[in-house]
Amino acid sequence: MKKLKMLAALLLLSAGSYAQKLPADSIFSQFYKATGGKALWDGVKSYTLKRSYSAAAATPYDAVITASIPEQSIYKNKTIMKRSFVYTVKGDQGWLKVPIGQRVDVKDLSQAEQQNMRQELYDNLAPFINYKNRGLIATTVGTETLNGAQVNNVELQGKGVKYNLYFDAKSGLLVRVKSLEAGVETTTDLSDYAKSAYGILYPTKLVELSSADKKPVTIKSALTVNENVNVELFKR
Do 59 and 85 meet the contact criterion of CB atoms below 8 Å apart? Predict the structure, then answer.
């Protein structure tokens, strides 16, 4: 009799856990609702991110990232000690501009580097944007506790990349992203959400930790959406 009661309790616990397992699209919908609404997100055509990066015992640097989603183009200018390194992907091409003395050397990006930047086009906002059209599959892993709060864990997987996305169960906000690519796992904690002038909420603070570097990097961000994109940025 005691064994039967224990079995019944376990079954109830299992059923309760299963009932709490929301579909991935429902979790994504909660995020969109919490950050301004799906209609606003669907209206994002371009964006610019101004970011500052800092880490212990490392030289801080700044970056300006400009992207056009319809044109699948992304430009990133990293400024380190007053030297600017410009990474650009436009269509099926990608290149890097490296300052050498008074001139600039232009090199082609590898296919892997180009693919990474194409993923950044979405990752900079939310990795699951248009995920089905991008060949990604989303699966709810379940609920767990992160920093004392309940979160919904969604796995997002595609060719050569896997994400685990952690959404605060109460607010619906994305609070952690774990990505695995080419054997390197990167954990990014997102916080300090603020409203952009466009109307969507975005995290102004990110703390990134890579299994390759093992040094936390603090990133401060400022986002603008749908401003005119300077076409000169995407010229080789």
Answer: no
Tens of pLDDT, residues 131-167: 999 999 999 999 999 999 999 999 999 988 999 999 9
- DSSP label of 216: -
Question: pTM for this structure?
Answer: 0.89
Tell me how many helices (H) and strands (E) the chain has: 4, 13
Terminus-to-terminus CA distance in the chain, angstroms?
Answer: 77
pLDDT per position as a tens digit, 189-219: 999 999 999 999 999 999 999 998 889 999 9
The strand ranges marked E within the chain are 46-55, 61-68, 73-80, 83-90, 93-100, 103-108, 137-146, 149-158, 161-168, 174-181, 184-195, 201-210, 217-225
Instruction: Give the C-alpha separation, 60 to 189, whole Å.
Output: 19
Burial of 6 (0-12, 13-18, 19+ CB in 10 A): exposed
Token code pair at residue 125: 């906002």
